Amino acid sequence: VQLQASGGGLVQPGGSLRLSCVASGRTSSRYVMGWFRQAPGKEREFVAAINWSGESTYYADSLKGRFTLTRGNAKNWMYLQMDSLKPEDTAVYYCASRQGLGLFYGEEQYTYWGQGTLVTVSS
């Protein structure tokens, strides 16, 4: 499975961005998708995850209410809508996936990773 993340860029504080991630390759099995991020000088951290059907999501506590994760009708697409962005949201955002029907928030629980897309929140 290959993952391709896109949609990063420069945005002012309070602005919005939508990140996309598409999975290709052997995607016939049901799989969970998620986002992680890594800020400069910090460890990678969990952002959000969505189950195969798109009906269940799980967010990092600090991001609830500002970030919304959805899955496209074509299940291999995932979208992260980020609103009310803050400078501390600046990071490289990575999409990840693994086979399974639940929700996972541990970095070590994911099998496949995309290359990352940079989000910079600055005035």
- Overall mean pLDDT: 93
List unreliable stretches of 5+ residues: none
* Number of DSSP E strands: 11
Strand content: over 45%
Q: What overall geometry do the principal axes of the alpha carbons give?
A: globular
Order of helices and strands: EEEEEEEEEEE
- The end-to-end span amounts to 37 Å
Q: Over the alpha carbons, how many angstroms does the gyration radius reach?
A: 13 Å
Share of helix among residues? Answer: under 10%
- If helices are DSSP runs of H or I spanning 4 or more residues, what is the number of helices? 0
Structural class: mainly beta
Biggest beta sheet attributes: 7 strands, mixed
Write a concise keyword list for the protein shown above.
123 residues; mainly beta; globular
In short:
Helix content is 0%, strand content 49%.
